[in-house]
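Recall that a protein's primary structure is simply its ordered list of amino acids. Everything else, from secondary elements to tertiary packing, is in principle encoded there. The following example makes that idea concrete.
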Amino acid sequence: MKHRLKNVKGTFLREQVELTGTDGQKHTATLNSETGHWQLPAEYAEVRTVNADGTTTWTKRQVYTEAQQDGGMKFYIYEYTRQLDENGKVTSVETPTRPLTTYVSQKY
């Protein structure tokens, strides 16, 4: 027997969450009601730094989630850094990091 679900809706009890980054600081992620994705502030989500030698360090961050069976939610800030040469060509990619913040289920 096959089951099909249509028009499934979920309720988020939070529109903002505080997540810990690799820098040890708290960063606010906001739920985008249009896309359903969690977004970090633009100035933290993507940072390009021009180095003294003309190369660029480019760091990007995105929020990933894992719903837990007990109703809790695990949030990760997926962070990766790329090094670019003077022409903007990627020369190296660092190993991504995923610091975890967990929100436990609140029973009502």
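The two ends are 34 Å apart (CA to CA). The chain has a mean pLDDT of 86.
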